[in-house]
Amino acid sequence: MQCERSGIYKSPKTRKKPNLEGIGSRKCQCPFRLKGFFDKDTNDWWIVMLRGMHNHDLEEKLQGHLLAGKLSAEEKKKVIDMTKSLAVPQNILTNLKQNNKESVTTIKQVYNVRTRWHKGQRGNMTELQYLISKLVEHQYVYYTRCNSEETTLKDIFFVHSGSIKLLNTFSIVLVIDSTYKTNNHRMSLFEIVG
Amino acid sequence: MTYSVGFAFLHFEQEDNFTWALKMVKSLLSSKDNMSKGIVTDRNGALMNVVATVFPETYTMLCFVHIGKNVRAKCITNCRVKPKPPKDAKVDKKQVKKDKEKNRDVVEKIVSAWKELVESPTEESYASALLKFKEVSMPFPEFIVYVETTVFNLKEKFMRAWMNKVLHLRCRTTNIVESTHGVLKKYLRSSVSDLASCWDEIDKMLAVQFGEIQGSFGRNKTVLEHKYKKNQDDKRVGGLCI
């Protein structure tokens, strides 16, 4: 057994060399070691201290510690549920702290769970593949149009199946307008309302 | 109650894109009888033309609030009691303040005349309101030219005198679509999400919207207004007496 700060930093194995500028590590080659062994004759566990010194001070409080702030599976589910219903990370954290008075979770952990969930949801699909798969799944009627070389999407139009029923029943007056600042592709969102 | 018919992400705001989107809407209508009677748009040149070509049988209307805003903005820049003095000229501060107040009064006068003009219910009252409007804005020829060239040629599309002849269900502004934009943006929260997450939010919004609409259908079926209820009771009482 060793201290969590023993050893040295290992960079992740990626094709691109990671940029380590401005990044630190908790590892400080701490020499603290314990050894546990099992005595077969007496059926007892023994623990032996090999080296009893840390080369760093112990932290006084648990806040900000990786393991202490870890979210349990139940809490993770709660974070995801609340994210789905558009709760802000700040509010999610408040909720967690209210339910568990001793929780030392920080906002970072909430954000991590959220991004992991977002990434996991899409899988390997690109943005448009995901969009279209969802449109099919939820029985939307959609039309797309590409530019002349069929490489990039120009326009996409989609309608909920319930809307079509309503449209065919109440189509006396329609109002049309478009709005901006809805997506990062600078496409305008064109909306028709009845 | 408002319901969203459809959404489209358009790469450009050009006639070509609008035509495509509107043709898709048209293809969704199951029969010609369901064709809408009127369509309201804002004063976007491309959109106006396209609506007229794709839906030739419907009456196209314009949002009078948008036009009113344009008129007011033009009025503020064009209708000055005194022309703007050159920058380096000496100005008397009191005089400037007075001028500003005068300008404000003139603008308010013109705008109120404009409102009366838009809201005049019949063509006769429209004519008299028009005379008044012209009289008020007489000293500012630039403004009159603007109004005549850009606005009056579309008067059938937003003036109340003409609008009263068609079925518009009191929907003379694009207010309802602006409000749904507002609702949607509350769901979106950020303006830099990608299309897929945008759709996620739209789907959530639609789920709520359909729930509301179904609820209103249910309420309308079951709830009876009190004024009608009273009559029923009366009848019953009368029946018992006899």
Description:
The complex is a heterodimer of chains A (194) and B (242). With 194 residues, chain A is an alpha+beta fold. Chain A has three domains: 1-58, no CATH class; 63-122; 128-193, no CATH class. Chain A contains five helices and six strands; from the N terminus they run E-E-H-H-H-H-E-E-H-E-E. In chain A, the strands form three sheets. A two-stranded antiparallel ribbon of chain A has the order 1-2. In chain A, strands 3-4 form a two-stranded antiparallel sheet. The model of chain A has no long low-confidence stretch (mean pLDDT 83). Chain B is mostly helical and 242 residues long. Chain B folds into two domains: 15-62 and 173-222, no CATH class; 64-163, no CATH class. Chain B has helices at 15-28, 45-54, 64-78, 93-119, 123-136, 141-151, 160-163, 175-188, 195-222, 226-241, and strands spanning 4-10, 38-41, 59-62. In chain B, strands 2-3 form a two-stranded parallel ribbon. In chain B, helix 1 packs parallel to helix 2 (45-54), helix 4 runs antiparallel to helix 5 (123-136) and helix 8 packs across helix 9. Chain B starts with a strand and ends with a helix. The model of chain B is unreliable at 237-242 (pLDDT under 50). The interface between A and B is large, with 49 and 60 residues. Strand 6 (188-193) of chain A pairs antiparallel with strand 1 (4-10) of chain B.
User: In whole angstroms, how far apart are the ends of chain B?
Assistant: 44 Å
User: How many whole angstroms does the radius of gyration of chain B measure?
Assistant: 25 Å
Helix content of chain B: 55-70%
Q: Which blocks of ≥5 consecutive residues of chain B have pLDDT under 50?
A: 237-242
Order of helices and strands of chain B: EHEHEHHHHHHHH
Mean pLDDT of chain A: 83
Total strand segments of chain B: 3
Oligomeric state of the chains in view: heterodimer
| Total beta strand runs of chain A | 6
The number of distinct structural domains of chain A comes to: 3
Structural class of chain B: mainly alpha
Number of domains of chain B: 2
Share of helical residues of chain A? 25-40%
Give the neighbour order of strands across the main sheet of chain A.
1-2
